Amino acid sequence: MAGWCLVGFLVAVLGSSVLAYPRVTFPENALRSHNRIVSGWEAKEGQFPYQISLRMVNLDGRVNGCGGTIIHPEWGLTAAHCTAT
User: Fold this and answer.
1) 79: which residues sit within 8 A by CB, 6+ positions away?
2) Residue 43 and residue 49: Cα distance in Å, rounded?
3) Which pLDDT value is given to residue 10?
4) What's the sign of the alpha-carbon dihedral 60, 65, 66, 69?
5) Are 58 and 64 in contact (CB under 8 A)?
6) Cα(16)–Cα(51) distance, rounded to whole angstroms?
7) What are the sequence ranges of the domains in the chain?
8) Considering the entire predicted model, what is its pTM?
9) How many angstroms from the chain centroid is the CA of residue 52?
10) How far apart are CA 37 and CA 67, in angstroms?
């Protein structure tokens, strides 16, 4: 029984280490600064009525932006790091 546990443990550890470093490639233009998502396109006004844009001004005057989703007429859902101080 202990032998099978050891085999299972080794398979899990070795398998996760192989999957931890997948090969990722990016298009050439991904390294340049853009104002849109890589391979994205311009959206028409009203095309995504459930999408929100959060714009927050820092104390030093810089503007941070995050997206979110309308989940209720008075509520939006966004990622936690968007509102962390």
Assistant:
1) 66, 68
2) 11
3) 66
4) positive
5) yes
6) 36
7) 1-82
8) 0.46
9) 16
10) 12
Give the span between the Cα atoms of 15 and 62, in whole angstroms: 43
Side chain identity, residue 43 = A
pLDDT at residue number 43: 84
Q: According to the model, what pLDDT value does residue 64 have?
A: 83
Contact criterion met (CB below 8 Å) for 34 and 46: no
Yes or no: say if 65 and 55 are a contact pair by the CB < 8 Å rule.
yes
pLDDT tens, position by position, for the chain (85 residues)? Answer: 667 777 677 666 665 555 555 565 655 655 555 566 667 788 888 999 999 988 888 888 888 889 999 999 999 999 988 887 6
Fold of the CATH domain 1-82: Thrombin, subunit H (2.40.10)
Where b means 16+ CB within 10 Å and e means fewer, 10-21 reads eeeeeeeeeeee
